[in-house]
Design brief:
This protein has helices spanning 41-56, 60-75, 80-86, 88-96, 102-105, and strands at residues 7-8, 14-17, 25-28, 31-34. By secondary structure, it is α+β, with helices and mostly antiparallel strands.
């Protein structure tokens, strides 16, 4: 049995492979963490969109805005899953994750359109 290779360098950003997490992927500046050894191109694009969003907001404000929006939706009566999908950063990433050229054309602060 081969040991897991947890650090996988695929260019920018560094991608960590950590099996067993209850998610497919998460972006924690400046890293992407995935739960599968060969993530799909759309998952990686989704997470790279988050990298761009975090960079535009200088990282910390991104997380503050993200959590604030999530709790706003939760307090408004949304389920946990619905609140997550209502966050503007997630709406942008989900809408464009399959468009692999999106980041090359994405306007500055593109998440504000959502």
């Amino acid at each position: 049995m081969k040991p897991y290779r947890f650090l996988k360098h695929t260019g920018w950003p560094l991608t960590f492979y950590i099996p067993g997490l209850p998610i497919n992927g998460i972006t924690l500046w400046p890293f992407i963490i995935v739960t599968m050894p060969k993530p799909s191109a759309s998952l990686m694009n989704h997470e790279r969109i988050h990298i761009r969003q975090q960079a535009e907001l200088l990282v910390f404000p991104f997380y503050l805005w993200y959590v604030t929006e999530y709790y706003w939706y939760r307090l408004s009566g949304y389920s946990a899953n619905a609140a997550y999908h209502a966050i503007r950063f997630e709406r942008e990433a989900y809408q464009h994750e399959r468009l692999l050229t999106y980041l090359s054309k994405r306007p500055l602060w593109g998440f504000l359109r959502f």
